[in-house]
Write a structure and sequence with these properties.
Elements: E1 5-8, E2 13-16, E3 21-27, H1 48-60, E4 64-68, H2 100-117, E5 122-126, H3 130-139, E6 143-146, H4 156-163, E7 166-170, H5 188-205, E8 213-216, H6 225-233, E9 246-247, H7 253-258, H8 272-284, E10 289-292, H9 295-310
Parallel strand pairs: 3-4, 3-10, 4-5, 5-6, 6-7, 7-8, 9-10
Antiparallel strand pairs: 1-2
Helix pairs in contact: 1-2, 2-3, 3-4, 8-9
């Protein structure tokens, strides 16, 4: 059985645990691995395509819309902390970090327009930059989803403590430009549990209230093919941390590798059914929120999985 939590978003509270909530992905980026360029007008920053995508996901059953303006696919360059430079020997020359101004120009019009059309919509901003988080909250976002675990921008912890919104703390090993060269993890479950506990404690010590936090083990983020499946198989152990749990496996490469044929990974558009298998397992093992591209499919799978959980499964 899943524990019941009340996630404090500042202006309202979300009950987590009686049913699985679906977080729908809206990427306003030119290069995200799954849907890069589909919902972004780079020249005019016209939000229409992204807002239409959000409206469709809400109609399909999404409770939260997660808007992101920077790709963190493997190999992507991210902005270094002040006073530090990004490693130049591992970042491909064709990829440069997205500036704070550019990221805001991508996400803020989308957030504002979603809130104008759907005032009750719950919007999350997918960012590791404190300034983008603050601007997004001012535009109407109620959740900050930080893939870095609040560690890449030294201002993020203080900013979230001040904003008093919902926050997703995700586990990541290294940065995207380093992922292909990271050494293997001995025990991925033990490592993720230990570091999530440490980072959550650091967040609460910095002034972020415990009931504002949700934890995410970060499937695929600095974990290789062989390390994601143990994390999935033992996902229920993360319930011991005492926080609500979010999981995102949607269309990820470890699923493509498993479904591959003739030595080639299955392409992104052929990973839907494999994704549903992982999402069903995650609900049965205690996930409170699923972050996904395929909202309708995930919502229906979650309804059936929730019925199993409610029956003692």
């Amino acid at each position: 059985m899943r524990a019941i939590f009340h996630w404090n978003l500042g202006s309202r509270t979300l009950e987590l645990g009686r049913r699985t909530l679906i977080m729908g992905v809206v990427n306003v980026t030119p290069d995200s691995f799954s849907d890069g360029g589909q919902y972004l007008d780079l020249q005019n920053h016209d939000p229409e395509k992204a807002v239409a995508r959000a409206e469709r996901l809400l109609a399909e059953g999404a409770v939260i819309i997660d808007v992101g303006g920077e790709s963190t696919r493997p190999g992507a360059a991210v902005v270094a902390a002040p006073g530090k430079s990004a490693p130049t020997d591992t970042v491909p020359r064709t990829r440069t970090p997205v500036s704070e101004d550019e990221e805001q120009a991508r996400v803020l019009p989308v957030i504002r327009e979603i809130k104008r059309r759907k005032p009750d919509a719950i919007i999350s901003v997918d960012t590791y930059k404190a300034s983008v988080a603050r601007a997004a909250v001012e535009a109407g976002a109620e959740i900050v989803n930080d893939i870095s675990g609040f560690r890449w921008d030294p201002k993020m912890l203080k900013t979230l403590a001040e904003l008093k919104v919902g926050a997703v703390l995700m586990h990541t090993r290294g940065k995207p430009e380093e992922w292909r060269s990271l050494p293997p993890i001995g025990d991925p479950v033990l490592l993720v549990k230990r570091e999530l506990r440490e980072w959550a404690e650091a967040a609460t010590l910095a002034g972020i209230k415990r009931d504002h936090l949700v934890l995410d083990p970060g499937f695929g983020f600095g974990k290789n093919f062989a390390e994601n499946y143990p994390l999935l198989a033992h996902f229920q152990e993360l319930q011991q941390l005492g926080y609500p749990l979010l999981a995102g496996t949607s269309r990820k490469s470890f699923i493509g590798r498993t479904l591959g044929r003739n030595g080639k990974d299955a392409p992104v558009e052929e990973r839907r059914y494999g994704t549903l298998a992982t999402e069903t397992a995650l609900v049965l093992k205690g996930a409170h929120i699923l972050r996904t591209h395929d909202v309708l499919a995930a919502a229906e799978a979650a309804r059936v999985s929730d019925a199993i959980v409610a029956s003692g499964g």
